[in-house]
Each structure stands twice: as C-alpha cells, then as structure tokens.
Amino acid sequence: MAEFWAKGVELGLKGKQLTEFVESQTRLLAQREERQAQREREERQAQSEREERQAQREERQAQREERERQIELKRLELQIKMETKRLELQTEMVRVQNQHEAPRQRDNQQQMLHRASKLPAFTDGKDQIDTPYFTGEVEAVCLKKPLYDLLIGNIGGARRPDDPDVEWRMGAAQPAVEEEDPLPFANEDISELLRDDRATVHRRDQPQVVSAVTTRAQAKKDKTTTPLRVTNSSATAVVDRDRLIQLQEADLTLTKYRSRPVKVMTKGEGTVHFEVKAKILYRVFQHPRVNGGKPLRQVLVPQPLRRQVMEVAHDSIMGGHLGVKKTSDRIQAAFYWPGLHADVTRFCRSCDICQKTIPRGRVPKVPLQKMPLIDRPFKRVAIDLIGEIKPPSEAGHRWVLTLVDYATRYPEAVPLKKIDTETVAEALVDIFSRIGVPEEILTDLGTQFVSECMEEVNRLLSIRHLTTTPYHPMCNGLVEKFNATLKSTLKKLCSEQPRQWHRYINALLFAYREVPQESTGFSPFELMYGRTVRGPMQILKELWTKDVDTPEVKNSYQYVFELREKLEETLEIARENLRKSQDSGKHYYDRKAVNRKFTPGNKVLILLPTDHNKLLMQWKGPYEVEAVVGINDYKVNVGKKSKIYHANLLKLYMERPPEAVQVAASAEEPDELDEFDGEELLELGDLHKKEGVDDVKLGPDLTEDQQKELHDFMGDFTHRFSDVPGSTSLVEHEVHLTSDVPVRSKPYPIPFQARESLKKDIDNMLKMGVIRESSSPYSSPVVVVKKKDGTNRVCIDFRKVNKITVFDPEPMPTATDLFRQLTGSKIFSKIDLSKGYWQIPVREEDIPKTAFATPDGTYECLRMPFGMVNSGATLKRGMRKMLKGMKNVVYYWDDLLVHTETFAEHLETLRELFSRLTKANLTVRPSKCILGTDNVDFIGHSLKEGQKGLLLENVTKILNAPRPETKKQVRSFLGLAGYYREFIPNFAAITAPLSDMTRKGCPNRILWGPAQEKAYQTVRDLMSRDPVLRLPDTAKEFILRTDASDEGIGAMLMQEHGGKPFPVSYASKKLSGAEKNYSTMEKECLAIVWGIKKFELYLQGVKFVLQTDHKPLTYLNSAKFVNNRIMRWVMYLQNFDMRVESIKGSDNVGADFLSRVCE
Q1: Per the record, which residues fall in region Disordered (predicted)?
Q2: Taking the CA atoms of the chain, what radius of gyration do you get in angstroms?
Q3: Which of 146, 140, 151, 141 is nearest to 93 (CA)?
C-alpha cells in the first residue's frame, strides 16, 4: 500500500483524492490477486479432473482384464462339466443295456458305434441311427477328436437321457415321438463350442431335415435366391402379326396414314413417309443424325397396344423408369403413333414409382407468406425445446426451454432436467412472471405443448395457442433460428467444461440481447427498455476514458412520458425495418418458388420420415386432400385420421388414366334456335391443333427490344399456346340433381346431309377424350343448326336436366368492379382460353348425367359441356382458384386481362400467369390473344389510356340494324343499346317511346310514329359520336351532379383530370306516375337520393362533392316536415360524407339534360 501512496503523491494527488486513489488501487490489486487465485483453483480443479479421468480409464482397463479372466475360468469350468456329463451318459447307457440284455441289441449298437468311429475326420456322412433316444437318418460331421461316440444335439424328437424308449427294439420302425423338453446338457454353451460343426437328422416318418446346429457356410449354401420384383404389365399379352394388322385396320387414328399416298414429307433436316408392307403400316423416317442416316422403319401402333408399348419402355425391369425424352426416344426406335410424345409425357408423369422417388428438391416450394407484424412487446411469443443435450449438465439438466418475443426479439432460455408438461408449464409461468403473460404463443406439436394440462394452463391465463404443421419447423422460424445461435454459442463457451453449460446460459442471453438485430435494426434491450444497457463495452470505455455520463434529473411523470414516447418511436422504426426485411427475404425466396395449390379431392404425396430414421424423408401416399385450412395448409386424410400439412410437404399425385374408349340430333334454321338459351347448348368443334405462338398478336407500339422479350416469353411457354383444350385439375364439374329418376328426351331427327359433319365432330371429340361411348340411362337430344358461313353447328339441349339441377350460386365479378381495377393501367394483354369449358373435367359419378344421343350411338361428356346450367359457375370457380392472390389480372368468364403501368411489371405478371396456367394444365387460344398493347377490347368496351369507349363492332351492328317492327325486335335493340347506357345521357327518357311499345297489352307489331322514329334516330346518333368515359380512380375525389325535370331525373358521376371534370358514368330514370306528382323540391331531393344510390359503390365511405342547380339539401335540413318519405331520405343521406356545391342551371348541363325528355 505504501507504494500506492508514493505513486499518488508522485501524481500530485492530495487529501481525499489521494485516499480514493490508494483505495481504488488496493481494490484493483485485490481483484487481480483474487482472479489469479481463481485461475490457480481452476487449474488445480482441471488437473484433478484429468487425474480422475486417468484413474477412471485405468479402472475400466482393470475391469476388462477381470472380465476376460472370468470368461476363461468359465470356459474351463464348462469343459469340466461337459466331461462329467459324458461320464454320466456312459453310465446311463450301461444301465440301459443291463435292463435290456439282448445280445442282438448290443451287437447292433457296437456295430453302429464302430461305423461312426470309422468315418473320416471332418467329413460329411449319412447313416441310419436306431437308438432308444432317437431313431432316424442322420447327416452329420465326424469330429477329429470326438468327445463321445455319438452326439445328438438339442433337436426335436430326441429324448432326455433319463427317459429312454423302453419299448425300443433294434430295427423296429417306431411311430413319431412327441417332442419333449430338450436335453438338459444341450445348452447354449455346448452350441457355442460346436458352432463350426453341423448335424442334420431325418426321422423315418418326417422326411424334412432338422438341424441341431447350422453354420454360416451351411446357411449361405442352403439360402434360396429371392426372385426380383417385376411390375405387372399388360405387355405380357401375346399379340401376333395377324392381330396387329387387324388392330391397325380398325384404328381410326391411323386411317389417314393408310389412305395417304406414298409421299415424302420434309420434317426439318429429315424426311417422313408412310407405307404398307406385308399389310403392316409403317412410318419411314430418315435423318442424317439418326440410325446412321439410314431409313428408320417404325411400326404404327394402334390405340389398344400403345399402353403396352409404354409399359415395356418405361415400367419394365429393363425400362429403368427413365424420363420422358429417353422413354420417347426408346419407343421411336421401333414404333410410332400420332401424339406419341404427349402420351409418353402423361404416362411417365403418372408413374407411381417415379412420383414417389422424385428428389424432394425437384418439387418447388410455395411462395413465402407474410407473417403479421407484431408491434406490441410480448403480444406473441415463440416457444420451443432444445435437447436432449449430451452430456447433461453437472446439475442434471438435459433440455433447454427457449422463448423469443416477436416484436422485440427478446429471448429467454431455461435449462430443464425433464420435459414433462408440468415442468414446462412451471418454467413458462416463471418466465411470464418477468415479462408478462402474452396473448398468443406459437409452438410445435410436441406432446408437452398440446397436452390437456397445457390447454388448461392456456385457458386459465387466457392465452391463444397456435401450432405449426407437422414436419414444418420453418413456420416457427424465429425461435428455431435462436435455437441454432444458442447451441452454437453455448458449444464455444463451454468447450473446456462441457458439463457446466447450464451456468453459461445467462451470460449468453445477455450477449444476444445486447447486439442489434438485423431485421429490426435495434437490440432487444433497446426495444424492451427504451435504452442501451450497460455492458462490457461501456464498462471498458469508462475504465479507459474515465468519462461517465451524468444522468439528467427528471421527475417521474417526465421520465415516464419521454420513455413511452421513445419506446413507441423505436418500435415503429423497428416495425418498418421488419417490413423491409420481410419483403427482401420474400423477394429472394420467391425467385424459385411456385404458387402450388390443391383442392379438396386432389390426390397428393406427403414427404414424411421413413419408418426407421426420422431424418430420412420419403414420399408416401397417395392420400386425399379433405379441405383447405389456410393459405398453404391442407387437411389430408392419412389412413383412418386427418392431419394438417404445409404445401411444401405435398406433391400432386397424377393418377394414371384408364385406357381410352363415343349426340339424337335435328337440323333447324337459325331463326328457330331462339327458344334455346345459349348456355344450354354444347357446341362441338374441330380439335386438331391448327394454331401456335405465330398466331399471337403483339401491340403495334412495342419497341424491338420489347417484342423480343415477348417472343422469348412465348418461347418459354410454347405448349400453353394451342387451340386444342387442355385438362385441368383445379376443379371438376359436378351435377347435383333433385331427383334420382333418369331424364330422357326423344332424339330429334337429323337431316341426312348433316349426319356426315356430325359424325366427323363426334370422331374428333373421341380422339381428344372430350366424350366417350355411353350406356347411361340419361339421354339429351342434339340439334344441328347452320352457321353464318354455311357450316353446321352441333349443340346439345340439356334443358330437362337443367330443370332438376341444384343451382350453383358462384358469384361473378361485375363489369363495374373489373373496370375500377384497371385505373392507371397503360399496358394490356388479353388472353382467351381455348374452349375454356372443355378444359374442365366432369366428376366421374356425374358423367352419365351428360349423356346425349346421335344416330351413331349414345355418348357422354368427359369434359364440361356448355349447355348445363352450372357450367358457367364451375368455370368461374376454377378461374378464381387459379388467380387467387394474383394482382394486375382480371377475368370475365374465360377471358383474362393483364394490366400494368410498366412493361417490366407487365412481363413479370405474364410469366406468373402462364406459370399458373401451366400448373393448371390450361391452354390459351393464340389467334385470340394480344400481348403488350395500349388499346384493347374487353367486355364489349374499348380501353385506352385510362378511358373507356364503345366497341366499334357493336356500334356498327346498331347503326346497320334495320328498324325494329315487332316487340321482340324492339327488346333486342334496346338490350344491345342499353348495354352502353352509361355512355348515353338521358338514355331512359330518350328511349321511353320505344320501351312504352313493349308494355303488356300493346300490339305485337309496333305502331311506328314520329316519337318512336325520333327516339330510334337519337340513340343511333349519340352512339355514332363515339362517346368516351374516364375509368374511375378511387384515389381521386368524385363529383356527383344531379337534376330533375317533370318527366325524369338524371345523375352524372365525374372526376377531375388536369383541372377539368370528365364524366365517369351517366345515369337516368323516368319518373313513375306517383313521382310525377312530387313537388319541384321533392323531385330535386329524389334526384340526389337516387343518384347517390346509383353510384353507391363509388361514394360509400369516401368524401365526395355534390353539385346541384337547386338547394334541396337546405330544404331537407331546415324544413319542418312530417312526410315519412322525406324523413327516410334524410336518414339515408346521413350515411355519406359529402360537400355540397350549388351551381347554376346553365353549368349543370349534363345532369339537366339527363333529366329532360327529348322533344
């Protein structure tokens, strides 16, 4: 201490400073000495542990040596016992011989023993043994130094030494002897001594060989070869040459090749032609790089034999279950048929073995789903268990309970000695006493977390328990990531003292809580306490710099207020950082993800652990999906129970379709078809592929680079552009009837000249698998009508079936909703499915209900027909499922419209859409597709640069239509013109003279007068001016103008663009007789109420401007009225947030015009 005083004086310290300096130096010296002593103690303890481990090793070595000595003593003792037993046996034999003094018996025994002694050493021999203890044929090995003259092992049928057969006679055939207990001396030790010897005996009445001891060599020699498992194949059916010729001639798909003259056709660098040789039809293909440039003669395979060929090429033991290309190449080396590649593709993809052995990495993951951001500390916590940890801690801990808060990333960890529910619950309650009780906890499906006891704990504490799906720990990734960090860090900290790991946990938790998290940008301590804690770095800085911050003195209220404000600000910043981190992680993860969806009824394979190793996963199934329980979670029926699995553990199972297997009809003029509803007719068309990507139209204003990108995109999805319909697994068409009585209709007679085209259509549909031959009790008739081009159209009349069909109320998006979504879009792509109805299969049990009759037989639909009442609902449901969660794509029936603001975003959306189309196995009609255009026709409207106009084709029809003369023609004209009523101001009033002519009681032939002519011409004139409307933009403020006249009311919805108001939509209504009696003020009020109701979809929940050339609202707010009608109007208007602007009548041109009838 004296030297400290001297050093202090040397530094110029005096008085209290000198005293404090000496005391601090003395404390530091004592601390250093304590640390040195601690290190010495630890070194001594480590040395003691090393000596203890050395002593333990020496003790284990001594124990091994002692066990070896005991084994040797036991072996010697066993030899002595065996010699004793041998002597006892000889004595027993003498006793038996004395009891049966028969010289002949003794002579036979001596001869038998003499023969046994003469056998060569260690050689196999067979002999007949006839003794009081066993009788039968023996296959034995003679010992070089035998212990006994004859040794019978522990085999069935051998008697005990003290129980010989007293009736035994040499040479006498004895009946089968029941098995007794084995010889007492034939124990495990004797068998071990004789493990290299073998003896097999045969009883006289039991011809099988019985082995007392079987060596490894004998077992290997006697082992039979297990036959290889070979897949049962229909290819074993014998098909001779005559049968092949017969099937080729009967196959309609090969007729055109047989009737085609020998003509060489160029196909790339090669040539192809067909020929008949010895009555067998061949395809001759020649290519410079195939078969050495020599012609390759391929047999054209008829339909019944194609599956056999594919089974041999793919499923057989020498097929190897190779991929599509190799299997296709193998088949084409000898065979060919039209559509070979498509058939092979379907066959290989539906192979059960291939689907179950596909590597898990080949099945793409589904896109990440954004987890809800928790912004309140300990609202939701994630919990998990680590262990079993080996070695256990010195105190007996084997597991660690971990908890992480979602908002602050604040962790907790508690070592546990056991993990039963009670122990885990107590540990959780202990943690909750420090951090508070959370609202939600997220765990896996461990028994500790889902037991009844834990459920009761959650109920008492009002905690909502969330669980992950089986074998999907990524759902609880927050705590799983912390577990990995904890284990890795703990391993480093306790490397020298592994059994002290439980003492390092608190220090590890402090280290984790102190550093900022990458996702939040703050440390858990900061988000928890609103400040940085004093840790090792701060202490070291203080020791070096002697700079200690002096805290500012604050009152309690000021401190709490500022702390709360800082915590809220910090949590808000952390929440924004979390959102950015979440978006970034999703972006990188989703680059290789595919949005795979399953529907109830789908067959799937599940990635599950093997029966022997939980770390090895394999595909098991197929199992059936019962329900969709989340965005990516599905309930699957696994055996006798149902479980929930994540989509990443599921893979769609493609069932191998069965082998393929064929409308009564009438011809009528087109005018007579009006009685049929368009939705009740199934049109049969040509199904041969005629269109491809070359038929797709591109936007005329695209740059060369943009056109090249679109061509590259189409090249990646060439198989989706086809006029031949695909077959989706998204949805099946179901037909639920109110009656089980089959519906049958008498076939309509078909003109003879129309039957040929009908047969051609039926054949095309049979080839494509759209229909098949039927024996159903149901039957609907077919009608043949002429198209405009003179060809025939074949349709099915399902009206009787539709009358007893349960209606499907699947909603359809309205045109108003669709156009609202297009606001701000500048680039469009229109995509039309190829015969969208035919791409949806009919449910197997409902196929007979679609049956229809033709002169050539009865057929039933395998794909959804057009004429059934619920066909449209099924199509809409399939489209909704395919596009679920996808932005910038709208649909109307089977028309898809992609709309974006930029080309890059547009191309990305197209790729996502076609990826979903590929997954759903849907094709699009190339000739009806247009990509990357700024002007597109959709739902009867023309869209361009945020404006909506009339479709020129429909306007031309209206302008060229003859003047209507009957009620029906007037209704048709008003229906077509009324579709564009939102473009025509005062449509209701203008067309009033025409609509009045369709009332009940008016003559069927219209009495055309000046009023009707003026209305007719006015409508045509207004439509010929090509009026345009602006697409509604919900981000902008709406303006509503209303007005009323003596005959009608009108409203006009507008929005400002560039400081000028532009119309969004027009609406008008004729006043009824009672409404015409309203006062002027009441009519104005009616116009306001009716206009707001008309455009309620746009005005509800937003603030808008109401412009009117009168002051009806002032009247409503100030008048003292007792009229219930006006009271209802007042109550209704209170639901809207509007700003009223009074304008002059001269400025309210649009609405004023809408309300007045054209004179």
Answers
A1: 29-68
A2: 46
A3: 151
Give the integer Cα–Cα distance in Å for 644 and 411: 29
Q: Do 1032-1155 and 380-465+478-588 fall under one CATH topology?
A: yes
Architecture of domain 238-362: Orthogonal Bundle (1.10)
Q: Which residue numbers in the chain have pLDDT < 50?
A: 113, 116-123, 173-213, 235-236, 660-688, 1149-1150, 1153-1154, 1156-1159
pLDDT at 924: 93
Residue pair 373/381 in contact by the 8 Å Cβ criterion: no
Contact 783, 750 (CB under 8 A): no
Q: CA 848 to CA 776: how far, in whole Å?
A: 5
Instruction: Mention every residue, 6+ apart, whose C-beta is less than 8 A from residue 483.
Output: 384, 386, 402
For residue 297, the cross-strand partners are 284
Distance between CA atoms of residues 870 and 2, nearest Å? 104
What is the CATH number that goes with domain 380-465+478-588?
A: 3.30.420.10
Distances (CA, A) of 578 to 82, 343, 372, 565: 81, 49, 10, 20
Give the C-alpha distances (Å, rounded to integers) separating 530 from 268, 537, 557, 711: 74, 18, 16, 56
pLDDT given for residue 830 in this prediction: 92
Residue type, 284: V
Of 878, 887, 921, nearest to 906 by C-alpha is: 887
What does the alpha-carbon distance between residue 1090 and residue 1084 come to, in Å, rounded to a whole number? Answer: 10
| Distance in angstroms (rounded) separating the CA atoms of residues 566 and 916 | 47
End-to-end C-alpha distance for the chain, whole angstroms: 119
Q: Under a CB-based contact definition with an 8 Å cutoff, are residues 952 and 942 in contact?
A: yes
pLDDT of the residue at 561: 65
> What is the third-level CATH fold of 665-939?
HIV Type 1 Reverse Transcriptase; Chain A, domain 1 (3.10.10)
pTM (global) more than 0.70: no
Q: Which of 139, 137, 142, 134 has the alpha carbon at shortest distance from 160?
A: 134
DSSP 945: T
Strand order in the sheet with 1048-1057: 1060-1070, 1048-1057, 1038-1044, 1103-1108, 1137-1142
Given this model, what pLDDT does residue 777 score?
Answer: 92
Cβ proximity of 415 and 503 under 8 Å: no
Q: The domain 1032-1155 is classified under which CATH number: 1.10.10.10, 3.40.50.300, 2.60.40.1930, 3.30.420.10?
A: 3.30.420.10
Q: Are 777 and 719 in contact (CB under 8 A)?
A: no
Cβ burial of 35 (10 Å; 0-12, 13-18, 19+) is exposed
Residue tagged 């990509």 (tokens) = 931
Tokens of 1147: 């400025």
118 CB-contact burial (10 Å; exposed 0-12 / middle 13-18 / buried 19+): exposed
Phi-psi region of 824 (alpha: psi -120 to 50; beta: other; left: phi over 0): left
Q: Cα separation of 371 and 986, whole Å?
A: 51
- How much is the pLDDT for 196? 39
In one-letter notation, the amino acid at residue 567 is L
**Inter-axis angle of helices 303-310 and 340-349, nearest 10:** 50
Residue in this structure with the two tokens 């000898």, named with its chain if needed: 334
What percent of the chain is helix, strand and coil (3-state, nearest 5)?
A: 45, 20, 35
Residue 884's identity, in one-letter code, is: K
**CA separation for the pair 861, 865 (Å, rounded):** 7
Question: Phi first, then psi: what are they for 925, rounded to 5°?
Answer: -80, 110
Q: Tokens for 90?
A: 């000889």
Q: Is 822 helix (H, G, I), strand (E, B) or coil?
A: coil
| pLDDT tens for each residue of 749-800 | 888 878 888 888 888 888 888 899 999 999 999 887 776 556 677 788 898 9
Tokens of 982: 């939102």
